[in-house]
Amino acid sequence: MPQHVTVSDYSPEWPLEYEREAAALARVFGGNLAAIHHIGSTAVPGLAAKPIIDIMPVVYSLEAVDALKAGFEALGYEYLGEFGIPGRRYMRRGGDERTHQVHVFSVLDTANITRHLAFRDYLCAHPDVCAEYAALKRALAGKYPFDIGAYCDGKEEFVKKHEAAALAWAGGGHE
To answer: Known Gene3D superfamilies for this protein (predicted)?
Structure first.
């Protein structure tokens, strides 16, 4: 069954769910965990989103993460390794109707860490861009309710444009 693409109004439960899940994941990561962040649309107050909690742990060793696969599976995650992005470890929970996604990066991968955090923070600081993004996501979910690929492709130009603006904003002392 293909993933059903739904976009929901912002929920104040999302940060609470992130906190619960981050604590459970931190226990599995143990001393390898350098930091853990709530990323993606559910991390932006007021932003409509697919109700999927995106979590970005930052670790000292990706190889050590691979050795913890069984611990993540015990939490209900499907461990998918790099899953198309070299230098990342990806896990998801909930199957086609996923509820959580975990994107693990090494502390040395500052480019990926910075772009995720800058985009999140830029959306928080720019309500007009946030509203535009919400409208785009709602339109795409309506047009492609069972085609996650088309939904993601439809967002790509917007994300790339505003990710570049976010990186400039983050590096330039903010506007």
So the answer is: Beta Polymerase, domain 2 (3.30.460.10)
